[in-house]
Amino acid sequence: MRAIACMLVALTCGTGCAPRSLYDWGEYEDSLYLRYNSSDFAQAETAVAETLPTTAHPSRVPPGVYADYGFLLYRRGDYARAIQFFEKEQTTYPESSLLMTKLIDRVRQRSAGKQPGTLNTPAAGSTK
Amino acid sequence: MRIAALVPLLFVLGATLSGCAAQKHDLSVFYAHRPRSIVVVPVVNESTEISAPTVFMSTITTPLAERGYYVFPVYLTNILLQDLGLTEAGHVHLLPPQRFLDLFGADAVLLITIKDWSTKYLVVQSSVVVDMSYVLKDTRTGLVLWESRQPIVYSSGGGDAITMVVSAAVNALMTDYRPLAQQANAMVFLPPNGIPAGPYHPEFQKDQARF
Predict the structure, then answer these.
(1) What ipTM was reported for this prediction?
(2) What CA–CA distance (Å, rounded) separates B178 from B176?
(3) Measured between alpha carbons, how far is B206 from B68 in angstroms, rounded to an integer?
(4) Nearest chain A CA: its distance from B204 CA (Å)
(5) Does A96 contact chain B (CB < 8 Å)?
């Protein structure tokens, strides 16, 4: 009985008292885990995408998540939306400005048909 | 996966959990430079478990960002370094810290080394260990802003016969180190031995008494 009470406390804490959390993390960590450990990019992208709409206010989107999603879009050849998300990262977090500017330049070059020799990713459209 | 968030708590309830903090450290250099943004570069792995760095890297962003810092996306960071031919974490750690200012615009770089990541099987119990060292360097001066060490030890099988059988069965298949890494990272950045709250945290510049 006491064990059950303890479990209940744990459950409540797990959902409710993640205290004063600054951000809504959604499935972001799972997305990273999938990419790093099973190279499952399709599922990783879904997991990050699900992190984004659940956040009501842009300030609740954690650092790096817009950029990370932008990279996943870039990876499968969606250059226009990749740039949009790099710009969102830049607007939300000015600390990322230098890196986002570099990335946006690279993606623009690539979408213009030039090969700047960047972002060692598999050809667009390849799955996994 | 809410269940993933629960696992560390269950560890606390059901297991002997020991976390040792590093010695008291001097934060005067930290306060003199006050980074806003931190880039976490690939970790050096001194353990024999080859999957340790990738499991670890998926657990570092949340606790660090929740301290109020801008944390560069770790996977993207890894890819960009690979583009530069930096595929070895050991080489990345030896770069002058100023390089991370040039490449990322990061105020500070966090260099993490996995010291231990192992499961030790004993007669009636087993113990799982993860142990990391953390060094935060200023990218403009190269100075060490903060450093710490965070081991987490989980021992199973100390209790009754049923617990022993169950935990032995679980551990014999494959150890899931992810909750231990999450636990270590959840602890290491907090007061009194962690890093002061960053600019996105409500306690920014108000928590000096806690260190």
Answers:
(1) 0.81
(2) 6
(3) 13
(4) 13
(5) yes
